[in-house]
Automatic annotation (TrEMBL):
Pathway it works in: Porphyrin-containing compound metabolism
Protein name (record): Cytochrome c oxidase assembly protein subunit 15
Keywords: Cell membrane, Disulfide bond, Heme biosynthesis, Iron, Membrane, Metal-binding, Oxidoreductase, Transmembrane, Transmembrane helix
Membrane-spanning ranges: 12-30, 64-85, 97-118, 130-154, 166-191, 221-242, 254-276
One term of GO molecular function: metal ion binding
Cellular-component GO terms for this entry: membrane
Length: 324
């Protein structure tokens, strides 16, 4: 069952909220990459015990800006949820997607507050910080995914069906789980690059085999390996999703996903060669978000109740007689 599309103004607003959220996410990565997470001390939501910091340092300004923009995007998420509830009839999928987006926005704020209050910032190189970074990444993906679904459903898409999907359900599970694993490994690798930067590429490669090196450094090698394997998996999943659910949306998403992932792998390679400069870390993260949004779009199109279905039919094996 399809639902009426949202108004143009709501569609534009939902896209604007998503874009602004991506900007806040990138600024949060800038906070981590510049070591500015302790710019407001271990105070939250105030900054160094003050609502407006006096005589702030550069690190304080960076962290305080992130908190201000996070507050703005929270208000936007609330407005999006309220608007979705008031402008759409009961049962419209936009309502549920907007409410989930607000929920993950609130958990995002709680995770961020926990990182500050537990002092998992600046030069903290504990395993606990890596765990919280992983949780933060997973929640960020869920937030971006929910907001992507708001935009998707605002176009008048049908509800999703999770039962009776067969192999498509398996492929969706592989995509989601793989992207979460890839994202967490990337977050830990980025943390290692920030805390233990290398002077040269040779030095960075040598550190992976050094038993005395920090755990974050010795585990950095896993991220590019996972990235290559996940890239191959996504191309395979996109190919089979297009066969099983041959809708224009699935095919377009699968093609876009392949192109984006090739670009992402290239950015990752350059990031390693250039020893992870801050600007390239932000580009790499933005591309990762684009890949994730495309995965969400492809999975939504494949799970849509009105998606065309095709059976898996193996190609006939030619016999000697037919070959003759």
């Amino acid at each position: 069952m399809t639902h009426p599309a949202s108004t143009r103004s709501f569609q534009r607003f939902s896209i604007g909220v998503l874009v602004f959220t991506l900007g806040v996410i990138l600024w949060g990565a800038f906070v981590r990459a510049t070591g500015s997470g302790a710019g407001c001390g271990d105070h939250w939501p105030v900054c160094n015990g003050q609502v407006v910091p006096r005589e702030p340092t550069v690190q304080t300004l960076i962290e305080y800006t992130h908190r201000l923009t996070s507050g703005v995007v929270m208000l936007l998420a609330v407005a999006l949820s309220v608007w979705a509830m008031r402008a759409h009839a009961k049962g419209h999928p936009v309502r549920k997607a907007a409410n989930w987006a607000l929920f993950f926005m609130m958990t995002e704020a709680l995770v961020g507050a926990g990182i500050v209050l537990l002092q998992y910032v600046a030069d903290n190189a504990s395993v606990g910080r890596a765990v919280w970074m992983g949780v933060h990444l997973v929640n960020t993906f869920l937030l971006v995914g929910a907001q992507t679904m708001v935009v998707w459903f605002s176009k008048g898409r049908a509800n999703l069906a999770f039962r009776g999907q067969g192999w498509v359900g398996v492929l969706v599970g592989v995509c989601v789980a793989g992207m979460m694993l890839l994202g967490v490994s990337g977050a830990v690798a980025a943390l290692g690059d920030t805390l233990f930067p290398s002077e040269t590429l040779a030095e960075g490669l040598a550190q992976h085999a050094n038993d005395q090196a920090h755990l974050f450094v010795r585990r950095r090698i896993y991220h590019p390996i996972i990235a290559v394997l996940m890239g191959a998996a996504l191309v395979y999943v996109g190919r089979w999703m297009s066969r099983l659910r041959p809708s224009p949306e699935v095919k377009q998403s699968a093609m876009l996903l392949t192109g984006l992932y090739v670009l992402q792998l290239g950015a990752g390679l350059v990031n390693v060669v250039l020893l992870a400069p801050v600007w390239l870390q932000l580009v790499h993260l933005l591309l990762a978000d684009f890949v994730w949004m495309t995965v969400v779009r492809m999975c939504a199109a494949g799970l849509s109740k009105d998606a065309p279905r095709a059976e898996l039919v193996s190609e006939p094996v030619p016999t000697h007689a037919s070959a003759a």
